[in-house]
């Protein structure tokens, strides 16, 4: 059976790390058909459109999508691409790897981020030159869909429950609805939850990440707090993610375009290659997925490493070392 994989490198280091992940997938001798498409700042410059219709349609029909990064056009690219796969949850594991100099080596977290609404899908207006507004939507149905997924996730993966991170003491109607809905679904499923205000979470996770395991949160909080967790484990070059919908999914590193190092061939490909390992698991290739995870882990531990991790290797060196270890 052939799997059609949409490959959308985007901009900046997305153009370097996405081909690296495709090289790893190609080395596994699975029947993949990779179809590449444009999105992001460069294609907008050329055509006026950051997300051409054919790219959207490809993501909406492919068996899975591998995406790199978007910069200034993030709102015009990432959010619609997630809609194309009807992705209601963004899974962001944040774990420390052996041998990597991490601020908190005991970190082992999974963020389950609401992916369709909240501030990122809100409506912004510039009322006057010096006044702007943002209207944010939170619905019971989206919160329920995420909570159902979280309950299945903790059951299937043998976790004790999950933490709900919100700011419902201030945003009573929006985060309040989110919190109440998630608690109610978890109660129906007999899944244990605790609640942490998002500001308190930011402090507590830095001081003692071990007290958390699976974290369920609204869209913006999930984006910000998972980047914070990246800081605890050694940097954004290490965090993969999966945007999962009922029938399709899109995989991307958590990091953006990194304009400061783009074009130099030194971007860390680990986050995108681990995202590809998540893609393999999603398509049912559990053993191959585990092999990629192990090869990445061994490479991070023993080298070569890119400069963000203190090494002097290139993206190509690290990718070749991972493929050698498969
Ligand atoms: N690879 C994902 C990417 O381009 N991240 C940059 C960004 O702005 N992300 C926002 C988000 O994940 O919602």
From TrEMBL:
InterPro entries on file: IsoPropMal-DH-like_dom
Q: Which domain of life is it from?
A: Archaea
Q: Is Mitochondrion one of the keywords? A: no
Keywords on record: Oxidoreductase
**GO molecular-function term, one example from the UniProt record:** isocitrate dehydrogenase (NAD+) activity
Keyword Oxidoreductase attached: yes
Q: Which GO terms describe its biological process?
A: isocitrate metabolic process; tricarboxylic acid cycle
Isopropylmalate dehydrogenase-like domain boundaries: 4-322
A Pfam family in this protein? Iso_dh
Family according to the record: Belongs to the isocitrate and isopropylmalate dehydrogenases family.
What is the name attached to this protein's record?
A: 3-isopropylmalate dehydrogenase
């Amino acid at each position: 059976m052939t799997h059609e994989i949409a490959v959308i490198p985007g901009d900046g280091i997305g153009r370097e790390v996405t081909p690296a992940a495709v090289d790893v997938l190609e080395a596994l001798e699975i029947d993949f058909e990779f179809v590449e498409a444009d999105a992001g700042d460069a294609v907008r410059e050329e055509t006026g459109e950051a997300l051409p219709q054919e790219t959207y349609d490809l993501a909406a029909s492919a068996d899975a999508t591998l995406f790199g990064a978007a910069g200034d056009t993030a709102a015009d690219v990432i959010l619609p691409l997630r809609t194309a796969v009807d992705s209601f949850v963004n899974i962001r594991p944040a774990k420390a790897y052996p041998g990597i100099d991490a601020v908190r080596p005991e970190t082992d977290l999974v963020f389950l981020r609401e992916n369709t609404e909240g501030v990122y899908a809100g409506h912004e207006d510039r009322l006057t030159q010096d006044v702007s507004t943002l209207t944010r939507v939170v619905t019971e149905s989206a919160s329920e869909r995420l909570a159902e997924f979280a309950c299945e996730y903790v059951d299937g993966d043998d976790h004790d429950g999950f933490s709900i991170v919100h700011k419902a003491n201030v945003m009573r109607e929006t985060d309040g609805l989110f919190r109440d809905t998630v608690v109610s679904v978890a109660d129906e499923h007999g899944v244990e939850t605790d609640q942490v205000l998002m500001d308190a979470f930011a402090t507590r996770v830095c001081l003692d990440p071990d007290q958390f395991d699976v974290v369920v949160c609204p869209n913006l909080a999930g984006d910000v707090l998972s980047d914070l967790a990246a800081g605890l484990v050694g940097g954004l070059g290490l965090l993969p993610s999966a945007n999962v919908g009922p029938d399709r999914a899109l995989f991307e590193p958590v990091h953006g375009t990194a304009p400061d190092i783009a074009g130099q061939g030194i971007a860390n490909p680990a986050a995108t290659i681990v995202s590809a390992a998540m893609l393999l698991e999603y398509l049912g290739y559990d053993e191959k997925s585990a092999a990629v995870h192990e090869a990445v882990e061994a490479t991070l531990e023993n080298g070569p490493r890119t400069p963000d991790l203190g090494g002097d290797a290139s993206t190509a060196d690290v990718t070749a070392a991972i493929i050698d270890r498969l």
